[in-house]
Amino acid sequence: MEMNQYLEVFIEESKEHLQTCNDKLLELEKNPQDLLIVNEIFRSAHTLKGMSATMGYEDLANLTHNMENVLDGIRNEKIVVSTEILDVLFQSTEDLEAMVISIAEGGDGKRNVEEVVSKLSAIEKGEVIVNSMPTKNKSSLSEHPKTSYDQFEQTVIQQSEDQGFDCFEITVQLREDCLLKAARVFMVFEILEKNGEVIKSTPSVDQLEEENFDHQFTVTLITKQNKNDLQGMIKKVSEVDKVDIINVTSQSLSIEDSELVEKHVVESTTTSNEKESSATKEKVENKSETTKTPVASKTIRVNIERLDVLMNLFEELVIDRGRLESISKDLNHSELNETVERMTRISGDLQTIILTMRMVPVETVFNRFPRMVRQLARDLNKKINLEIIGAETELDRTVIDEIGDPLVHLIRNALDHGVETPEVRLANGKSEEGTVKASSLS
Fold first, then answer.
1. Which of 29, 40, 58, 68 is flagged as catalytic?
2. Which residues pair with 385 in a beta bridge?
3. Which of 50, 137, 243, 353 has its CA 20 to 30 A from that of 323?
4. With contact defined as beta carbons under 8 Å apart, do 89 and 45 qualify?
């Protein structure tokens, strides 16, 4: 197995473990005394930590280790579950998801997680966490983190510069009261793509579409448009507060890259001893885990592109089957006719199997809703119960990929405009908690 295949397995399994963490954290919020739930979250975090360390993603492993320490304190009844602690754990999983997405997109999986790590350490020490969610000053556009570029992106910037294009880092700040952030991001991207080529966004496009960011994002654009004209066009988008545009050159990238390399060498030297000292501790922790008899897995991961190739080969087989049917009719040979009929039945069964292999439960889309609803309900000061019906319904993988984002926007609109605040609901004779149903059944 090549390294990129190991990486694919790592990414897929990491997403599964993080989804487990999210689901179980939501359960834990409803049943804070249930230590069995905590044990399940701990096992997923522990597995993810080991996988990350094996693959060399130390930042991801470090954050998971800090998260694991808090979970260990909860399951040993040294830490009492509270809303503030759950907020920090949710923020940790969001950062871990962002790291995994970065790795999937070819990045290094690095992310500034000092704040959430310090909060996890404070929880582990028994200190009180007051405001678990990080807040940002909306006027601090000049303090946005510098975007890093891989070798391919640097080459694109260099070639564009040689052809007379400009490269801009455009940082957009949305208003603090902006609720439909993804819609505003879409409008900004639509303007930028009409006036140039977007080569990078921070956070990633997936995170922006899922509104997994604060109120600020940065887009790198290759264009021949004037900086002031771009700024004016973006400012016309509703609920855009500020726009900051800086020029990026290949020369400035070269200087920054050399500084990053020097910094990485220094960090690697200073952390080598820490890794050695933690190795012994890791072995002890692994031995303390309850050993179980391994169960043989009955599933394998198959790239959907391979299924597409298999379907194309099957279509060619169907064509040949049709030719054989025509020949058998002309010859009127009994044994040949029986063989062709049997081949028709088998090919029909084969087609059904191939189509079934492409089917994916719709829960892969619905899984992202509970945490999103929880956070949005808190932001809007509303009490909302989400009911998911028919999550086991299966659809073709291509359809699953297409319906995800529209469903997210429908859920958000339902929460924004379909459910009143507890005060208004009580005044109208309703219960404080509103219900939003996501159903795949007719």
1. 68
2. 435
3. 353
4. no
Q: Give 398-424 pLDDT, tens digit per residue.
A: 787 778 778 878 888 888 888 888 898
Whether 46 is catalytic is yes
| 330-379 pLDDT, tens digit each | 888 888 888 888 888 888 888 888 778 778 788 777 777 887 888 888 88
**Strands in 77-206 per DSSP E:** 166-174, 197-202
| Secondary structure (3-state) at 396 | strand
63 vs 377: CA distance, rounded Å: 27
Active site residue 423: no
Which token pair is 404? 């995800």
**pTM exceeds 0.90 for this model:** no
Distance CA 292, CA 43 (A): 13
* Set 76, 112, 312, 413: catalytic member: 413
Q: Where are the beta strands (DSSP E) in 58-196?
A: 166-174
One-letter amino acid of 235: K
Residue type, 168: F
394 tagged catalytic:
no
106: left (phi over 0), alpha (psi -120 to 50) or beta: left
